[in-house]
Amino acid sequence: MSAEKFFNCIPLLRCPVCGAALSRSGASLVCASGHTFDPSRKGYVHFVPNAAPSRYDRALFEARRRIMEAGFYDAVIDAIRTAMPESPGTVLDAGCGDGTFTKRLQGKTTVGIDLSKDAIQLAAHGGGPVLWMVGDLTGLPVQSASVDVLLNLFSPAHYAEFTRVLKPDGVLLKLVPQEGYLHEIRDLLGERLHRRVYSNEAVVSHLSDRFRLTDRKRIRETHPLTEAQAADFLKMTPLTFDIEPETLDASALKAITIDVELLIAKPN
Q: Which domains does the chain have, with CATH numbers?
């Protein structure tokens, strides 16, 4: 059944290599040029077989999932859900990570795409209707003008592809950190960080050049932390990628600030 959900949604899919339509051939998805992709029995399709290894590994995504399940981002999810149209047809989460956001923001058809195989395997665990794909944002394996809501949450963007796949009346919801986001971790790392002051105005400007920005919503909360939760935050953030883990003192983190902005945009 986990593979059948992809065959049931073939009209939505396209070959990420050549852009041709996909069809079913036995247990595979194939295009007219012969590019072949096999849905896994675990519930996902690997559309980038030669993807380079990522620093975003399974341990990072498992820590992120525990944090999400603990409710730290519930207000953010509520804000995104409020900004979505009621009962959207097709929702695509571009850069979905472990899929926790995706599962709580579903449409009638929902696609979660990430370049990390570890993330997609974690997202697909337990089954469900979401179409999980290991895919590249520069070549999304979905048809043009097929997506009602495109989520781009804490993830890089590829606006040419986003424009291609969104319907003319579709909506792009992009989530970006603000200057207070995880500032307690920035304070803890101090001079070990390459950049202490954080701004996303360049990201907003880049989006505004390519989409029509219709609204901006800021969500800021500070939450107390247990030591285990502090360790998970340290593990899940790219801020600590170049820091030796044994030099990080999770016990020093007593609280954490979630400070983000939701950008709501329409195709030009």
A: 4-267 (3.40.50.150)
